[in-house]
Amino acid sequence: MGLLCLAGTVCADTGGRLLATGGVTNIEGSAGGGIVPWAVLSGYGARGEWGGDAFATRVDTGDYRLDAFGASLAFNNRVELSVARQRLDMDALTKAAGLPHKSLNQDILGVKLRLFGDLVYDRLPQVAVGAQYKRQTNFLIPSLVGARRDSDTDYYLAGSRLFLGAVGGYNLLVNGTLRYSRANETGLLGFGGDRRDSRTLLKEGSVALLLNPRWVVGVEYREKPDNLSFAGESDWQDVFVGYFPSKRLALAAAWAELGEIATLEGQRGIFLSMQLSY
Q1: Which residue of 20, 49, 100, 277 shows the fewest CB atoms closer than 10 Å?
Q2: Mind listing the pLDDT tens digit for each residue in 57-97?
Q3: pLDDT tier at 16 (50, 70, 90 boundaries)?
Q4: Contact 30, 61 (CB under 8 A)
Q5: What is the DSSP letter of 62?
């Protein structure tokens, strides 16, 4: 099959979706940015086709190390199912506070449904609704610091649009997400707390500039709740670069500013992720 190139910066097989428009896989298993889900679906399956991803991600701040891995499956460019596992290693905090465990873990099951629109070809932006069921699997430490429950569900609404030739001839992707959640540190510290046990509406966003058919740079922001009195929970930001050598492989690296995590302030470090798509 031939290639279709738009504005000189994005190419795709004429039989499928555009290269890089599925983004990468975020740390909770959904397609999009590294820390923010987008309205796009995983893989490159178009109408009537299957697609999906498998991913592995590591974020290392020195005091903490987060490993996430999982897979997703999408059909008809309409619905996406995903599964992910997160493990947060916290040796520095364990030694300083004499905690009984060296890590926190959670499993995540996700579903995303494209409601309407298209990332490129429709007048309307692509809009999707999603849910992520999360279960914290070693709840002792979260319960000791005030978390109310070991499982819960996040709900989100995302809108994404690719503007062709919008910035000096380069394509620009803009995404906004609203999340309804009470997850502490994405759920690794349980859900709800002594300060607040109700879900709150949280803002998330991404902006990505496609430099050429394979290279993408951008920024992300994720608002966080503040449910636990024992420690503050900071909003997250990152600056990222993505490399898409083909529709089968995607690599991403970012500098992540995570602020305070479980009493340790100034958490920042490298985010690395690899994704295999079909």
Answers
A1: 100
A2: 999 999 999 999 999 999 999 999 999 999 999 987 777 66
A3: low
A4: no
A5: S
Q: Is the pLDDT of residue 7 over 60?
A: no
Give 3: exposed, middle or buried? Use CB within 10 Å, 0-12, 13-18, 19+: exposed
10-17, long-range: CB within 8 Å, 24+ apart, which pairs? 10/162, 10/164, 10/171, 10/210, 10/213, 11/213, 13/247, 15/46, 16/44, 16/45, 16/46, 16/49, 16/247, 17/44, 17/45, 17/46, 17/77
Rg (CA), the chain: 18
Spatial CA neighbour of 179 closest among 149, 205, 206, 154: 154
Is the CB of residue 3 less than 8 Å from the CB of residue 14? yes
Contact 74, 45 (CB under 8 A): yes
Is residue 11 exposed (0-12), middle (13-18) or buried (19+ Cβ within 10 Å)?
middle
Q: Are 102 and 90 in contact (CB under 8 A)?
A: yes
Provide the pairing of β-strand 215-222 with 200-210. antiparallel
